[in-house]
């Protein structure tokens, strides 16, 4: 009898991507194997790990479920499961709209998936189980890590904020912090396996400690990471300006393996809009943090998230956002046109902005940020940087005979392939020769190549038989954990 296969389809933020690593680990622990690449639903179990923060999230889910319905009819025994934020929100609605779904589970009980699948098979009826609070911290569950050299490490789940555009607190619950000792133990175990870069993950990652009553817990955690031998790069996402304190800046600057890179959501540069968003900082506070970070780490790359067209946003409000962008000079900005999140206060606010106005402002913002990104990247030309070789970052590497990876500040670098063998996870020292708005180029011979334990781990992993690629992602595009949220409005958008 052949082994049963599974496929996980992930949408949304980094938290969902990390949860999908857990779901894959749970399924493999239950005896399933990853479906071959290109299976496209042709697996014994298909799991949707959903996101609920976009207005059309449910339409996308039901469209995908509809495409699987005839396939399920042709394949007796095939099962479909729906989890994540949309499952937490819609609950019984999913089975009513798509009665061929076998399991619906929420954000708080992902560990129940194998049991629910078996119960659905035996009882021959859909199993809907949504926990109202966290049953077990996700990091206690089995994991199928998607990278041999870089890893997510969740330090908290949930959110205590009440931003009017965000439904995350209602679906993920109040913030719950992991014990510091458990976090460090997981990191040490990962490093022992060959991982050299970790990204600390939380809805409001720098609010860590509020659940345990220590306002400096996050900076202490960063410093503790600096003492782990073999851990070369530490990143975190996404911090909230409200909780970004001077001790965190000092810890970043004084801990060598904490990278000179910060992603901190702005959302709007208008104090009026920030107040309507229920964001607990103002433009002056945000720019003050940026100024302190640059004073402590002059070469830090700072990126952000911005929402255009929030209800009630005037042209003057938008110009304040443009002013903030000019002052902050972000290396990169993830810009979003406001989209109603069903169930949020902003969805029912008056003065919803016409689509054409939002689009026009959005294009102006994108053009400004593109200009700034290019100018900031041009400043990198002539610098020498250590690039950690990545897997899947350069789509044209094969044609250009280049490799790709990330500099310490997280900028994407494409570089000439060295004569010697180089593996993902190894570190190559290169000189930057050209800058584009979204990447850097290092042409010519490399200055040095350092083979690493991470490269050894990647080589060992790829030598084993594989059952296909990593988690099949919808959004974001992530092969190796990046600290920059590329999700369109996911949980990482603060």
What does this structure look like?
By secondary structure, this protein is an alpha/beta fold. Helices cover 34% and strands 19% of the residues. Strands 1, 2, 3, 4, 5, 6 and 22 form a 7-stranded parallel sheet that branches. Strands 19-20-17-16-15-18-21 form a 7-stranded mixed sheet. A 3-stranded parallel sheet has the order 7-10-11, with helices on both faces. Helix 8 (217-225) packs parallel to helix 9. The longest helix has 24 residues, at 355-378.
Which features characterize this protein?
494 residues; 7-stranded mixed β-sheet; disordered C terminus
What is Rg?
22 Å
Strand content: 15-25%
Oligomer: single chain
- Class inferred from helices and paired strands: alpha/beta
Helix content: 25-40%
Number of helices: 15
* Biggest sheet statistics: 7 strands, parallel
Shape descriptor reads globular
**What distance lies between the first and last C-alpha atoms, to the nearest angstrom?**
48 Å
Low-confidence stretches: 466-494
Topology, number of strands: 22
On the 0-100 scale, what is the average pLDDT?
87
